Here is the input.
Amino acid sequence: MSTTFAPLQNDTFLRACLRQATDHTPIWLMRQAGRYLPEYRATRAQAGSFMGLATNVDYATEVTLQPLERYELDAAILFSDILTVPDAMGLGLSFALGEGPKFAKTVRTESDVAQLAVPDMDTLRYVFDAVTSIRRALNGRVPLIGFSGSPWTLACYMVEGGGSDDYRLVKTLMYQRPDLMHRMLAINADAVALYLRSQIEAGAQAVMVFDSWGGVLADGYFQAFSLAYTQRVLNQLPKEHHGQRIPRIVFTKGGGLWLDDMNTLDCDVLGLDWTVNLAKARAAVGGAVGGLGKALQGNLDPNVLFANPEQVAAEAVKLLDSFGAPHTDRNTNGPTHIFNLGHGISQYTPPENVKVLVDTVHTHSKQMRLRR
Amino acid sequence: MSTTFAPLQNDTFLRACLRQATDHTPIWLMRQAGRYLPEYRATRAQAGSFMGLATNVDYATEVTLQPLERYELDAAILFSDILTVPDAMGLGLSFALGEGPKFAKTVRTESDVAQLAVPDMDTLRYVFDAVTSIRRALNGRVPLIGFSGSPWTLACYMVEGGGSDDYRLVKTLMYQRPDLMHRMLAINADAVALYLRSQIEAGAQAVMVFDSWGGVLADGYFQAFSLAYTQRVLNQLPKEHHGQRIPRIVFTKGGGLWLDDMNTLDCDVLGLDWTVNLAKARAAVGGAVGGLGKALQGNLDPNVLFANPEQVAAEAVKLLDSFGAPHTDRNTNGPTHIFNLGHGISQYTPPENVKVLVDTVHTHSKQMRLRR
Here is the structure.
């Protein structure tokens, strides 16, 4: 816990999270350590399975750093899964090759919920050890982001037992037994909070809550069953660690309609998917120079990376321009943009297009600042 | 073509489409003739396959009327599929049991697109015959809605060959070869327009465009690749037939963020999914009494129908109240609401809950009007 880490050389990402002026727009990509990289596939083949990779500190460190060797990314993100917490609750997470996550046990009845509890963080030691190991290996190059699934997103998987097309089981429980759903979400929120706090103590320099399935909820239910429990997580997180601010990012896929609601969250950054107009989002929640607001992260359609390199570059420029000029006054806060995709990068992405994207974002965003 | 049909007894749905005052809020349900009904499953078993059902005039008539025997629905919708047009283009539509649609041929290359053409409407004669047969069988009880998939939604299936998680192939084509995609969408739009015109001539009293996959597009691309071609369809439809107004409904699933854009469409009704706040949508596009605006259709989460009957009734009341009191002045137009689900009804729905829903909507919406 008292580990000292190397000083940070590139703080662009952390500054942008806190709405501070930067020399360029920082970029990182959700799932940047992943199957689109041949070196990742090689390591995964050695590890035998996804969980074999995620639970082994050396492998997790190796794959986390792989994309940084290829691209000038401004942040690293812990290699792990959004569902480690319910796994630690004893539900038995696994990934069959080429398929989504599956739980051996599900949570569907009153007695299932009664058996749920915030897990002993010792069962998640492998995650915290990986955080510390990655932070050491990064050696101050870029900051390290820790993360978890949101309480609602965890509940979706816990009830359904895996992915779903219609969320019929989890929504049936929610509509029929809102009391049980609230009980489950409170436990999930407290578990996620403890989990993220432990990641911060282990060395995470920012934390992100992935509300991957918040967007499937009806208006009204999103606020009560997803947003409120994300806020319950945020309430329990330290804003600083060893004197350093720990920015918090919340990303609800399909949450663009609820941006005003999300603006009330006690977090620093809102993640956006590609359906959101970045200029409108900036106007709605980005705040003024010298005023309060949220930093915005996103929101390129991952499928843009299947276009030709010139087209990828053009789309990156278009997105940067739609956010518009970020403020450049180092004495005050103002609207900032962290470039990212609107969802995890596809396993079929040509790696060379990622280089075009990262380099274009850096080059063009520097030019945007000079032009002012 | 010169068929005379029985006079309409219940015009509540058509009036609400045109923002005219009604005594109650009309209700119908997307996919109301479907697998949740045991009598539908029995007919489908006789027909052997979904397409066997849809292409046989007698079966299509029978299943279209089945839900009207059980529930006091205010409209009937042609039993068919959104993908009949690409099937008529020669792509070979089929449905394996328990699975989504599949096309034998896909459209992915320049030469594939070059071979596309607006199909001869004679190959869709089975649809128009079904429309006329259903209209006769309805005998004026309620109006009959005709429909098609939107040009973009058809293109998704034509390129992907079936459903998709990530729309990688269709979006790759769109980002790499926007020229080809525009060519395909123009052909689709002209084909859909001809198809809907033929349905109107055969007896459809309102038409609906299902833009089921418009919501997967990035901001900017939705407007250029989906909305513009839906408008191209609308441009080619007659507003009246034999002196009767033919209302047009456009439903983009996941389109709530683009409501202002959709408000520019030359249609009468906008369909909404459950993520949209009905009160806000009314304020944004519903228009004032005496002013222009769109009627709104939707938007109950279909999963509400898995709750207990009292809960289903409570959710229906909540949704009606969130739209608020419709205008009651028969001398002018004003905001109106057509009750529906935010997506097709699930095959697992308990049929008795649908009765609770329909009856609650009628009873409560009458009370809302008396209270004023």
